[in-house]
Predict the 3D structure of the following.
Amino acid sequence: MKLRDIAHSRAGDKGNISNISLIVYNIDDYKLIKQQVTAERVKQWFSNIVEGDVKRYELPKLGALNFVLEKALGGGVTRTLALDAHGKSLSSALLEMEIEYEQD
Amino acid sequence: METIRIGSGAGYAGDRIEPALDLIEYGNLDYIVFECLAERTIALAQQQKLLDPDKGYNQFMEYRMERVLPACFRNKVKIITNMGAANPIAAAKAIKRMAVDMGIKGLKIAAIIGDDILDSIDKYLDYPLLETGEKLSTIYPKIISANAYIGADGIVEALQNGADIVVGGRIADPSLFLGPIMHEFGWTKDSYDLIGKGILAGHLLECSSQVTGGYFADPGYKDVPDLWNIGFPIAEINRDGEIIITKLEGTGGMVTPATCKEQIIYEIHDPSSYITPDGIADYSNVEVKKVGKDRVLVRGATGREGNGLYKVNIGYKDCYIGEGEISYGGPGALERAQLAGEIVEKRLKYLKVPLDELRIDYIGINSLYKDRLGKHLAHGKEGFPEVRLRVAARTGSREDAEIIGNEVESLYLNGPAGGGGARKYVRDIVSIASIFIQRRDVKIDVLFEEV
């Protein structure tokens, strides 16, 4: 199963830092993303784009994780040579990540 | 007043005007906020002000005010905006002239100044830049603007003195909303828990339709009705800081717990420390709850005192970016686009164009996610009916930047078969660096114009 089936996402920017949220549709699925979508895995997922650290923040009441990706925007929104200078499209790529879904 | 109603009239400089007019006319609003100032915009506005001391405010201000002013006056809706950009005083005077021309009487316009510290930037040459850790002196000759992110203080003062319209420059986005809330409920500057809730209200509204279903739709997964006619948000806030986000009936879009969650988390980094000039908001325990159709209750933000510093955004002339694009289609499209890319790269080397960085993309294949992740997302699918080559490079001069697009354009005659739709661009890049300064270095003032 893909993340896209259980969660939605929005990406934003600040300088050379990308900020990507991941929010489950059904709060019961929060534990799944909390277990499986680690900062390490997200760093690996975007390893050819993100040069810095990835930090993960938890928002259990919203059923959400927030990822902060350092050195992710080609030197910063103003001077990057990337077509998507703000890294807005990173959210959609995250949702392609595979999730193991065990039904009780 | 037990509840106040604030509408968001714009989330960026070029935002649509009709949803704002609808809100003013039918939203039963107390306030409407126009957030129109991006980080870079103020640097560009500062340059306009240098050329003409009566300019330097938002280029769409007259366009917006011409439509908004009569409706706001008629419906008794107060306006808060950062459209003053680099010159709030000139903006207030311009609004006054427009009001006079419209025959409006009994209007008080406040200009908030003090965020512009360009004149004293020399004091901070040893300060480290937040982005790189290098000293401010390294970019000193290229600086064109320096503005402190100021808070709600000036807005509160303006409203206490009876302002109907408040025009500022680099006021932090959420503070534009926090100001009227603090004023209406008499919240003090040290009531940090309440201020945290007011900051959240501002944060939810500052990007206009991004909380009413804009930037949200994903057909089949997240469907949003009538996006073409999306309504901008209204926040109803009570004196305990509880927020209901809603929108006008009959407009497109939607307000749901999911749309609110995406905006709560948007660009906040650490949810427990959302730093603003008015205090630090903590969103860790925020909850959302549907309380009606297109009505969502948001509560649970808290707050604490900030670090006593102001963040200053410094705009500086950084570099140039030259770009060129051309499309190839049909069988072998990718191979021909790749050949074209190689040709341009060789030409730039041959011409010895000094480039800081060169990037060659194939739009549709690797321009968003580069090669590895791009290939993964393509699921091994091969064969593309069309591919667009994009060459971009950063240079120190405009002349060098122009060569990039020219070399791509010359592929028409000198490149592979069938290239079409060449376009070229050169951008003069103004970048932003930041420092922290002591609050006492910034003197906020409020000036009034009356009609």
